[in-house]
Each structure stands twice: as structure tokens, then as C-alpha cells.
């Protein structure tokens, strides 16, 4: 039996187990020397770790990280690290985020191929608790730019997320009038999408 063979989608048994949060199967496989615990899928460039953190499986992530050959800073085909993928997960992945942030070999300000950073992805996903966790750290810039010159506040205004706008405005580093590469400020996006709630917050009228 080949425990590290790939199927038609170029995924190994460990990749499938990690992506589905099957901790017992992951435990069985990571203890074997004939299993490559950091193997990338050729189609997506994802590793077992990136698949499990994108689903928020903190326990499985810990099991994988016991292996010294697992690189938490590896990137997928979009140049996203497991850290960034965990922020983009629909469930917020707060536990996984904390696990990864505790490591010295994970870059918190890493960008994907479009220049989008973890904080942008978290804001875009509407994960308030994760955003608050990130903003407690000094190595996250709340006014950082993506490849289009957009800040997290641009994203929050674009999405019409009033709660996220309020969280970001609590940060003294955030520039309300910063324009992106198209010349738009966060208020432009609030106006474009006729979002009166976000507009009032940006104007300080709430």
C-alpha cells in the first residue's frame, strides 16, 4: 500500500484527510516517514496544512506542524500562505490564526499575487474577531495597501460592513482620505454603493 500516492486531482491521502479535518487519519499518516507531509498539489499548489487552515481545523494544523518538514510559510499558486488562507476562510479560523501567529516562521504581512494582505482578506470576509486579534499586534499595518492601492478600510466600505468600518476607524494609523490607484477614497465607495450607514460613520455623524 502506498500511503503517499496521488489520485487524479494530484492529492495525497494526507491532503484529503487534512482538508476534511480527520484528525485520527492525519495522526496515522504524519507518523510515517514514507509520507511527505508538505507535498503540494500540482493543480492548486496547496499543501495539507493550507487545506486544513482554510477550513479552520486548528487541531489538525497542530498535528501537521509537529512535523519539521512542514513549512507554514509555503505558498499556493496564488502566492498565498497558509496564514492568509486561514483569514480568507468563511468561518474566520480564529483558532488557526492564533496558532500560526505564535510561530516565528510565518510572515504576518505576506501578500498574494495581487498584493492583497491577510488583513484585507479578513476584513473582506467580515471576520470581526479575527480582525481585532490582528490589530492587537504591532506587526500588522491597519492602513496597508494591496496591489490596487486599497486599504482594509476601502474593502470594508466596498463591502458595506459598518461594524468593520468602526473597528478600523479606532486605529490611529488609518487615513480616511487615502485614495487608491483609481483615485477613490473609502467614502467614494460608500457613495457609489449608496451605503448611507457607512457614509455616516465615515463622516463622523454616528
Keywords:
single chain, mainly alpha, Serine Threonine Protein Phosphatase 5, Tetratricopeptide repeat, 12 helices, Ankyrin_rpt, Ankyrin_rpt-contain_sf, ANK repeat, Ankyrin
Structural summary, described in words:
- The structure is a single chain.
- This protein is an all-alpha fold.
- It has two domains: 1-113, Alpha Horseshoe (Serine Threonine Protein Phosphatase 5, Tetratricopeptide repeat); 114-205, Ankyrin repeat-containing domain (Serine Threonine Protein Phosphatase 5, Tetratricopeptide repeat, Alpha Horseshoe).
- The protein is built from twelve helices and no strands.
- α5 packs antiparallel against α6 and α9 (152-159) runs antiparallel to α10.
- The chain is elongated and about 65 Å long.
- The protein starts with 12 loop residues before the first helix and ends with a helix.
Topology of helices and strands:
Layout: H1 13-19, H2 23-30, H3 48-54, H4 58-65, H5 82-88, H6 94-101, H7 118-125, H8 128-135, H9 152-159, H10 162-169, H11 186-192, H12 196-202
Helix pairs in contact: 1-2, 1-3, 2-4, 3-4, 3-5, 5-6, 5-7, 7-9, 9-10, 9-11, 10-12, 11-12
InterPro entries: Ankyrin_rpt, Ankyrin_rpt-contain_sf
Protein name: Ankyrin
Pfam families: Ank_2
Amino acid at each position: 500500500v502506498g500511503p503517499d500516492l496521488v489520485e487524479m486531482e494530484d492529492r495525497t491521502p494526507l491532503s484529503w484527510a487534512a482538508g476534511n479535518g480527520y484528525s485520527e487519519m492525519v495522526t496515522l499518516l504524519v507518523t510515517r516517514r514514507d509520507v511527505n507531509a508538505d507535498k503540494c498539489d500540482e493543480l492548486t499548489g496547496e499543501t495539507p496544512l493550507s487545506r486544513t487552515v482554510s477550513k479552520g481545523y486548528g487541531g489538525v494544523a497542530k498535528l501537521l506542524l509537529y512535523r519539521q518538514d512542514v513549512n507554514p510559510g509555503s505558498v499556493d499558486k496564488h502566492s498565498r500562505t497558509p496564514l492568509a488562507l486561514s483569514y480568507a476562510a468563511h468561518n474566520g479560523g480564529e483558532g488557526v490564526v492564533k496558532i500560526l501567529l505564535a510561530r516565528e516562521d510565518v510572515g504576518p504581512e505576506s501578500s498574494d499575487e495581487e498584493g492583497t494582505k491577510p488583513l484585507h482578506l479578513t476584513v473582506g470576509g467580515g471576520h470581526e474577531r479575527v480582525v481585532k486579534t490582528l490589530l492587537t499586534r504591532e506587526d500588522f499595518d491597519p492602513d496597508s495597501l494591496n496591489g490596487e492601492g486599497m486599504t482594509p478600510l476601502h474593502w470594508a466600505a466596498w463591502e458595506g460592513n459598518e461594524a468593520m468600518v468602526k473597528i478600523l476607524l479606532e486605529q490611529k494609523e488609518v487615513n480616511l482620505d487615502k485614495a487608491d490607484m483609481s483615485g477613490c477614497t473609502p467614502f467614494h465607495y460608500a457613495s457609489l454603493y449608496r451605503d448611507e450607514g457607512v457614509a455616516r460613520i465615515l463622516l463622523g455623524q454616528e
